[in-house]
Amino acid sequence: MAALNQTGTALTTFSDWGSWVDVAAPGQAVVGPMPGGSYASWAGTSMATPFVSGQAALLEAEVPGLSADKVSECIDQSAVKLAGNPVQFGAINIPASLKYALTHH
Known about the structure:
The protein has helices at residues 45-62, 68-77, 94-104; strands at residues 2-4, 23-26, 30-33, 39-42, 90-91. By secondary structure, it is an alpha/beta fold. The strands form 2 sheets. A 3-stranded parallel beta sheet has the order 1-2-5. A two-stranded antiparallel sheet has the order 3-4.
């Protein structure tokens, strides 16, 4: 899992990258709720991971019974290539992955 910058067009300077990394997701200036009703901003691949976990959950909800391999296929095959191909497939594209799942599975 790699982390995308705020524009979603490139990896952050702190992100890991290479052919062993399948996809990238938002990982810089990710805003989320805090206890007491406030919000905070974080950065890191640990912020990118929940985006892909949520994407996998949406795919399973849309097409019940998808195997883990099929969920990965939907995520990977719908990803948007990044300039210079710093990761194997690219940036996640949740709407495209749902469409891929519906048309291929």
